[in-house]
Amino acid sequence: xxxxxxxxxxxxxKQLPSNNKPYQNLTERLRNFDGDWGNSEELFSWFxxxxxxxxxxxxxxxxxxxxxxxxxxxxxxxxxxVFHPSFRSDGHAEMMVLNNxxxxxxxxxxxxxxxxxxxxxxxxxxxxxxxxxxxxxxLHVADDHLGGMTRQRQSLPSVWQKxxxxxxxxxxxxxxxxxxxxxxIFLSNVEQLNQNLSNRSQT
Length: 203
What we know:
The protein is α/β, with parallel strands linked by helices and 203 residues long. A hairpin with a 5-residue loop joins strand 1 and strand 2 (74-79). The protein is 46% helix and 13% strand. The protein has eight helices and five strands; from the N terminus they run H-H-H-E-E-H-E-H-E-H-E-H-H.
């Protein structure tokens, strides 16, 4: 399963465009990352960073997510899809990967035993969606000091406090290098896309 995930990640990297130097740099950093592949949290943190970079190549926010079962099997994955292929305000990576799971895998795997990996700390909408799904764990690669909610989840209303009990929400156990790559991917286009969102309210 480790080799399959590495192979899939590398295949996706090969298909990404290299039409500008900053983007090419991010691709090379992921391709050359020498991870501790015996650490599943590092492996899947690397993988969702690749999915995040793929999302940016399509004009979306640089966030990627994946759901993995308790045996370490990659079940499904998705990048952010807010702008492409068409605008959808719910197109956050965590929302999309949970949609995929609930549409195709809900009767095959026990979600409460699964882990959701996301390249960036979940926003309030995605965190409450994950809590509602009752997935067993949500692990993020990079902290989001502007919009992240995972580290502030104790401030959620009481109903969400009860629903999140006995679940795991934390930063993934991965290298600082990988955390920096994941954050840099998100920051690579976030200002422009936030402006695009703002412009929609003026049309």
